[in-house]
Amino acid sequence: MSQTSIPRLKACSDGELISKTLLEHGVLIVEGFLEASILEAFNREMDGPLAQERPDRKFLSPIYDHFFGSKTRHLTGLTGRSEIFREQIMQHPLYLELCEQILLPNCASYQLNYGHIFEIAPGAKAQALHRDGDCWSYLPSDFNVEVASILALTEFTEANGATLVIPGSHRWPRNKTLNYADAVPAEMSAGSALLYLGATAHAAGSNITTADLRRGMHVSYCLGWLRTEENNYLAAPINEVRNYSKTAQKLLGYAPHDAAPNGGCLGVFSMLDPMELMADGKL
């Protein structure tokens, strides 16, 4: 195992310092990211829906069946399931500050890419090391397309499969072989967050415990002109989306990506702003 450590900062740390550290190392643990009351309420809210999910479910193709394995429960569509997620977690000030600093140089606006809870049971094997940014593998690799995170909803330990991450791998060429020997387990307390860039290599670790379920949540944001990993428009019906906060609507992609005067606009409806149409009762 590499001796390279993952940088750590407190949630109260200066946002510019957090951004600078993330850009330098490609990964960072922020301790105390979620307040205890929010963490407790959100876990309680998700207990029931998560318990209804089958760990041996099927995915888009056999490739993803193998990637996710058969010992992990998954829960998606979080914006439609949880006001806590939609209004407090997704809009966390640090997330938005990092997106402003890291993503806006390459877009006119950013958006939620994915919200995804996972609960990994004993016996689960480690994932293949991968980069989330490879969802957009047709793009050049010399600029940031994604700000991502894994929130520890329960304690992450090396034994229960804490996320493995390779600090500095965001600077590697795409064709460089990824090796578990270079990876470090992101051990952290519940409520802490592992922040990383789309080009940073990582993987879920093996859960070698006998009874310890590891629950975490992937939350990520991407450039506003990209197709998102989850189709967030399907997470809730439009009748509900009308009542969401303006920031939530914008993060879910209902605002146009308007790059004028340096470019055109994307995501209009009837050549107008969908958010304004919703506000006027026309959509």
From TrEMBL:
Matching entries from SUPFAM superfamilies are given as: Clavaminate synthase-like
Cofactor(s) it depends on: Fe(2+)
Q: Which UniProt keywords apply?
A: Dioxygenase, Oxidoreductase
Report the Pfam families cross-referenced here.
PhyH
Q: What GO annotations for molecular function exist for this entry?
A: 2-oxoglutarate-dependent dioxygenase activity; iron ion binding
List the InterPro entries: Phytyl_CoA_dOase-like
Against PANTHER family, the record matches this protein to:
ECTOINE DIOXYGENASE (PTHR20883:SF48), PHYTANOYL-COA DIOXYGENASE DOMAIN CONTAINING 1 (PTHR20883)
- What is the protein's name according to its record? Phytanoyl-CoA dioxygenase family protein
